[in-house]
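Working notes for the structural subgroup meeting. M.R. asked for a predicted model of this chain before we commit to crystallization trials. I am recording the input and output together here so anyone reviewing the notebook later can reproduce the run.

Input as submitted:
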Amino acid sequence: MRFVQTISVDASDEKALAALMTDWHEAEAGRAPGYQGSRLLADRDNRGRYMLIVEFSSAEEAERNNDRPETQQWGDKLSALIGADPAFGNFDEIQTLG
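Returned structure, recorded in token form:
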């Protein structure tokens, strides 16, 4: 079952946040366990608020990815960009249309 993790953050530098996401994707796609892609969304009603959506083949693969030093380093870089602790959401995919 596919697994999606959301990370809600506040950040003042959208370009740096987008670059961090791009760097991860370019370095880890095909290497990070179960990683299938990500999206970065900007909140239209709350400037400076972003949602990172990261897709994995399963929750187990996402957990394996979380334990990697590369993921820990990425998290440290994210922490340096955001204004407060991120809020995480963990979701199992039920249905995809389209």
